[in-house]
């Protein structure tokens, strides 16, 4: 964790940077593929709506719950061979009750299943309660969920617009939210899990989580881009990329912390309990949190930068920043050119390489005329007589 903390500190200070925004086309392509797979899954397989949405028959009776209760009642109901029975949904309620849900059945099949449940539980037939659920109740839940989603999106759009004073931030956040919901619902279609009211609650919950993470990143973007048009250092995309790098470690930490308990609930609901509201709720939360973290880092900031870069002011800023960088690159190249010319011998002066310098103790030829011999046997400087020097 300390290593991750050091990386996070370097990312926050700008010492290490990953180009999230520059590779936006890669992230957009990945998201388009995931959305396309989700849409195909919804179109081909559809959603496995629970009994609350499509109607059916529900049985309840008292029984001592054991590890094999769910399997025993599932096999007992299937053994009736009722028409259009499908896969019955068996859940335990506490430690002394079991609930069985089936598709809509004829009156004869309802009686047949009721007798089988009574035999398995070891109770009288009249101790098995039976209730038929109409599809209209599920339609009411679905309509209210859609209405709640629309109201939520409208309010989110307005609140983000007011908080950031930027409608493009609202557009980017809403697109990221729809991206998260569509992929989550597509996973349900591909896996075949039942969609129940608990699933709807889970989907509405992940909207809030995904939005929270996105707002944190946008807040850092606003801080980095405050007064950006008065400077020529960064483009809007550069400042946005810096904001993502400064918050990415935080996003990873919060996502992992949120996924661990939700993943545990998913394992318990799927492996231990087999079925029930825990599984329906935890799968939506698990997928939604993971996709929401992805969109808040890779999709929402990239969308915001794309929208903002189309503004004339940001385009002018980009031209100034690129011109300044080109000028700095040219100055650096011009400063390096004379040194290169000296080394290559192209100028009037000749550069002396370190390896060409004389070593200590090596005789150096004098620029003045010298005699070949002297008193000490060494070459001595000579000088013309005064008469021959023009005096």
TrEMBL record:
<dbReference type="InterPro" id="IPR048634">
    <property type="entry name" value="SecD_SecF_C"/>
</dbReference>
<keyword id="KW-0653">Protein transport</keyword>
<dbReference type="GO" id="GO:0043952">
    <property type="term" value="P:protein transport by the Sec complex"/>
</dbReference>
<feature type="transmembrane region" description="Helical">
    <location>
        <begin position="145"/>
        <end position="164"/>
    </location>
</feature>
<dbReference type="InterPro" id="IPR022646">
    <property type="entry name" value="SecD/SecF_CS"/>
</dbReference>
<feature type="transmembrane region" description="Helical">
    <location>
        <begin position="256"/>
        <end position="275"/>
    </location>
</feature>
<feature type="transmembrane region" description="Helical">
    <location>
        <begin position="26"/>
        <end position="48"/>
    </location>
</feature>
<dbReference type="InterPro" id="IPR005665">
    <property type="entry name" value="SecF_bac"/>
</dbReference>
<dbReference type="GO" id="GO:0015450">
    <property type="term" value="F:protein-transporting ATPase activity"/>
</dbReference>
<keyword id="KW-0811">Translocation</keyword>
<feature type="transmembrane region" description="Helical">
    <location>
        <begin position="197"/>
        <end position="218"/>
    </location>
</feature>
<dbReference type="Pfam" id="PF02355">
    <property type="entry name" value="SecD_SecF_C"/>
</dbReference>
<feature type="compositionally biased region" description="Basic residues">
    <location>
        <begin position="381"/>
        <end position="391"/>
    </location>
</feature>
<dbReference type="GO" id="GO:0065002">
    <property type="term" value="P:intracellular protein transmembrane transport"/>
</dbReference>
<dbReference type="InterPro" id="IPR055344">
    <property type="entry name" value="SecD_SecF_C_bact"/>
</dbReference>
<comment type="function">
    <text>Part of the Sec protein translocase complex. Interacts with the SecYEG preprotein conducting channel. SecDF uses the proton motive force (PMF) to complete protein translocation after the ATP-dependent function of SecA.</text>
</comment>
<dbReference type="InterPro" id="IPR022645">
    <property type="entry name" value="SecD/SecF_bac"/>
</dbReference>
<protein>
    <recommendedName>
        <fullName>Protein-export membrane protein SecF</fullName>
    </recommendedName>
</protein>
<feature type="domain" description="Protein export membrane protein SecD/SecF C-terminal">
    <location>
        <begin position="124"/>
        <end position="309"/>
    </location>
</feature>
<keyword id="KW-0812">Transmembrane</keyword>
<dbReference type="GO" id="GO:0005886">
    <property type="term" value="C:plasma membrane"/>
</dbReference>
<feature type="transmembrane region" description="Helical">
    <location>
        <begin position="171"/>
        <end position="191"/>
    </location>
</feature>
<dbReference type="InterPro" id="IPR022813">
    <property type="entry name" value="SecD/SecF_arch_bac"/>
</dbReference>
<keyword id="KW-1133">Transmembrane helix</keyword>
<keyword id="KW-1003">Cell membrane</keyword>
<keyword id="KW-0813">Transport</keyword>
<comment type="subunit">
    <text>Forms a complex with SecD. Part of the essential Sec protein translocation apparatus which comprises SecA, SecYEG and auxiliary proteins SecDF. Other proteins may also be involved.</text>
</comment>
<keyword id="KW-0472">Membrane</keyword>
<dbReference type="GO" id="GO:0006605">
    <property type="term" value="P:protein targeting"/>
</dbReference>
<feature type="region of interest" description="Disordered">
    <location>
        <begin position="345"/>
        <end position="391"/>
    </location>
</feature>
<feature type="transmembrane region" description="Helical">
    <location>
        <begin position="281"/>
        <end position="305"/>
    </location>
</feature>
<comment type="similarity">
    <text>Belongs to the SecD/SecF family. SecF subfamily.</text>
</comment>
<dbReference type="Pfam" id="PF07549">
    <property type="entry name" value="Sec_GG"/>
</dbReference>
């Amino acid at each position: 964790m300390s290593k991750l903390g050091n990386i996070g500190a370097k990312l926050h200070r700008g010492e290490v940077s990953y180009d999230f925004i520059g590779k936006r086309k890669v992230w957009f392509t990945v998201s388009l593929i995931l959305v396309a797979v989700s849409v195909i899954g919804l179109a081909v397989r559809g959603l496995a709506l629970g009994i609350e949405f499509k109607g059916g028959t529900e049985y309840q009776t008292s029984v001592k719950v054991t590890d094999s209760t769910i399997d025993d009642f599932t096999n007992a109901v299937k053994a009736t061979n009722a028409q259009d029975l499908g896969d019955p949904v068996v859940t335990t309620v506490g430690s002394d009750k079991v609930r069985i849900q089936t598709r809509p059945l004829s009156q004869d099949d309802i009686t047949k299943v009721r007798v089988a449940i009574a035999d398995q539980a070891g109770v009288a037939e009249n101790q098995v309660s039976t209730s038929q659920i109409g599809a209209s109740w599920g339609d009411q839940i679905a309509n209210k969920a859609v209405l709640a989603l629309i109201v939520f999106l409208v309010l989110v759009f307005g609140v983000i617009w007011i908080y950031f004073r930027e409608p493009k931030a609202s557009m980017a956040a809403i697109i990221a939210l729809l991206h998260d919901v569509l992929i989550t619902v597509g996973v349900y279609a591909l896996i075949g899990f039942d969609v129940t009211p608990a699933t709807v609650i889970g989907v509405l919950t992940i909207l809030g989580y995904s939005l929270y993470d996105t707002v944190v990143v946008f807040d850092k973007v606003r801080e980095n881009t405050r007064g950006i048009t008065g400077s020529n250092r960064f483009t809007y995309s550069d400042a946005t990329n810096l904001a993502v790098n400064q918050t990415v470690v935080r996003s990873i930490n919060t996502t992992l912390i949120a996924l661990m308990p939700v993943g545990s609930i998913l394992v318990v609901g799927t492996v231990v309990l087999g079925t029930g509201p825990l599984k329906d709720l935890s799968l939506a939360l698990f997928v939604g949190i993971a996709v929401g973290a992805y969109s808040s880092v890779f999709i929402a900031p990239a969308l915001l930068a794309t929208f903002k870069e189309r503004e004339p002011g940001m385009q002018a800023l980009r031209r100034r920043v690129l011109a300044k960088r080109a000028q700095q690159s040219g100055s650096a190249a011009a400063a390096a050119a004379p040194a290169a010319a000296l080394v290559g011998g192209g100028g009037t002066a000749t550069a002396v390489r370190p390896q060409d310098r004389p070593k200590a103790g090596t005789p150096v030829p004098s620029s003045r005329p010298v005699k070949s011999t002297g008193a000490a046997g060494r070459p001595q400087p000579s000088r013309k007589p005064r008469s021959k020097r023009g005096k």
